[in-house]
């Protein structure tokens, strides 16, 4: 049986955020919004979902006609931030770039 992930401390979260520019902390999740047209956003989400399935960690995703917002937290850690969240954020950034999505300020 796998152990529950360990939540990060405040200092660890601050350090991890410096490694994923553009992501913002919103309580116990990190978020980022990308500008992309609707059908491009659908393709982006499918690509992200495929990677999420492989690594066993999933973001909350909000698709609008001109943007996609990702919110990440670790449900198995009591909805707290863990290293898995920042790993997924890095993966999402690479996928978004490959799809030509542009980062939006919140």
What this model shows, in words?
With 106 residues, the protein is an alpha+beta fold. The chain is built from three helices and five strands, in the order αββαββαβ. Strands 1, 2, 3, 4 and 5 form a five-stranded antiparallel beta sheet that branches. It is globular. The model has no long low-confidence stretch (mean pLDDT 95).
| Structural class designation | alpha+beta
Radius of gyration: 13 Å
- The number of helical elements comes to 3
Mean pLDDT: 95
Give the beta-strand count.
5
The major β-sheet equals: 5 strands, antiparallel
**What's the SSE pattern?**
HEEHEEHE
Low-confidence stretches: none
Q: Which word captures the global form?
A: globular
Helix fraction bin: 40-55%
Q: Estimate the strand proportion.
A: 15-25%
Distance between the termini: 39 Å
How are the SSEs ordered, and which strands pair?
Layout (H helix, E strand, L loop, with lengths): L9 H9 L5 E3 L2 E7 L2 H18 L4 E5 L2 E6 L10 H16 L3 E3 L2
Helix pairs in contact: 2-3
